């Protein structure tokens, strides 16, 4: 029998430094009375994980204890099977994309897409916001044309039906957009051959994303960002590192407030791509900024 308070304290003592800076969260109502689960639920809430993520972690800790016969408070859980992720090969999976997508530019219109693609940025995303269906189709079609001959991989944010029609490389969806897809729409999207990237902001969302087998997982926001209102606090490099270990069988994109000076610590977590927005579109010389950021993406010579 495990001593729940002692085990919770052991988890905290071993991992507090990794997740320093997060305020404790309320402990959610437990869904099990297993001691390892209860200890992990308390500890993860104290470490600042929101209710859905604390629950997800507690269940993973319990699953590992059952699988290995030990609570292992000193080892943060990162085995995909303990989180209920799909076994390999996945039953549900989108078309693959490169393991390392490199510098990933998120851009407001087709003109920017073409400009950064010609500057050599390997992965670009059109994030065009409009309620005008005709304008959306024109912009998506123009973005597809803009990357032709450049080698850049083009993902379209949200507008998946148009992306299929005009032959984009892939699409990117947020959690709410993914959840809104009906089963037949999800299957049509998978059958189209487009690659799918999904935004995640913690453990519970990564588990939900894994259920559809996307082509890559985006994780963030890593640092504070003013680009849009975030539902969760910045995740930080410590959390990014444990997320990357869990999702190691996926290509991974780190996003959110990442500047050139932070590239090294972000890449040290194992992610293969860093997404930027303001670092390019707000730069005095975007082409020069892109070149410099791509240099930061390159492995350091030994």
TrEMBL record:
Q: What class of enzyme is it?
A: transferase
Q: Which residues form the Thiamine phosphate synthase/TenI domain?
A: 110-280
Tell me the SUPFAM superfamilies matching this sequence: Thiamin phosphate synthase
Top-level division of the source organism's lineage:
Bacteria
| TM region positions | none
**CDD domains documented for this protein:** TMP_TenI
GO CC annotation: cytoplasm
What biological-process terms (Gene Ontology) are attached? thiamine biosynthetic process; thiamine diphosphate biosynthetic process
Reaction(s) catalysed by this chain's protein: 2-[(2R,5Z)-2-carboxy-4-methylthiazol-5(2H)-ylidene]ethyl phosphate + 4-amino-2-methyl-5-(diphosphooxymethyl)pyrimidine + 2 H(+) = thiamine phosphate + CO2 + diphosphate; 4-methyl-5-(2-phosphooxyethyl)-thiazole + 4-amino-2-methyl-5-(diphosphooxymethyl)pyrimidine + H(+) = thiamine phosphate + diphosphate; 2-(2-carboxy-4-methylthiazol-5-yl)ethyl phosphate + 4-amino-2-methyl-5-(diphosphooxymethyl)pyrimidine + 2 H(+) = thiamine phosphate + CO2 + diphosphate
Pathway in which the depicted protein is active: Cofactor biosynthesis; thiamine diphosphate biosynthesis; thiamine phosphate from 4-amino-2-methyl-5-diphosphomethylpyrimidine and 4-methyl-5-(2-phosphoethyl)-thiazole: step 1/1
- Is the keyword RNA-binding assigned to this protein? no
UniProt-listed Enzyme Commission number(s): 2.5.1.3
Q: Which InterPro entries match?
A: Aldolase_TIM, ThiamineP_synth_sf, ThiamineP_synth_TenI, TMP_synthase
Query: Which NCBIfam families does the UniProt record give?
Result: thiE
Q: Which family does it belong to?
A: Belongs to the thiamine-phosphate synthase family.
Q: What is this protein called?
A: Thiamine-phosphate synthase
Q: Which organism is it from?
A: Acidovorax kalamii
């Amino acid at each position: 029998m495990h001593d729940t308070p002692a085990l919770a304290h052991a988890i905290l003592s071993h991992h507090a430094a990794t997740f320093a800076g997060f305020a404790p969260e309320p402990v959610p109502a437990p869904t099990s009375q297993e001691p390892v689960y209860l200890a992990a639920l308390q500890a993860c809430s104290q470490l600042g994980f929101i209710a859905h993520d604390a629950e997800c972690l507690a269940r993973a800790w319990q699953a590992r204890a059952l699988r290995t016969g030990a609570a292992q408070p000193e080892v943060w859980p990162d085995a995909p099977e303990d989180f209920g992720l799909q076994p390999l090969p996945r039953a549900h999976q989108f078309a693959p994309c490169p393991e390392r997508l490199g510098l990933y530019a998120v851009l407001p219109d087709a003109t920017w897409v073409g400009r950064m693609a010609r500057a050599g940025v390997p992965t670009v995303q059109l994030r065009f916001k409009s309620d005008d269906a005709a304008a959306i189709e024109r912009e998506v079609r123009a973005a597809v044309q803009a990357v032709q001959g450049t080698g850049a991989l083009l993902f379209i944010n949200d507008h998946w039906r148009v992306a299929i029609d005009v032959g984009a490389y892939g699409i990117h969806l947020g959690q709410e957009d993914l959840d809104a897809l009906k089963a037949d729409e999800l299957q049509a999207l998978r059958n189209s051959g487009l690659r799918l990237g999904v935004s995640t902001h913690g453990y519970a969302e990564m588990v939900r994303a894994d259920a559809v087998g996307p082509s890559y997982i985006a994780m963030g926001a890593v640092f504070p960002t003013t680009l849009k209102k975030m539902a969760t606090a910045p995740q930080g490099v410590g959390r990014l590192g444990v997320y990357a270990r869990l999702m190691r069988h996926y290509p991974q994109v780190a996003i959110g407030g990442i500047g050139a000076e932070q590239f090294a610590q972000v890449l040290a977590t194992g992610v293969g791509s860093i997404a930027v927005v303001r670092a390019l579109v707000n730069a005095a010389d975007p082409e020069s900024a892109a070149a410099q950021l791509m240099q930061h993406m390159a492995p350091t010579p030994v």
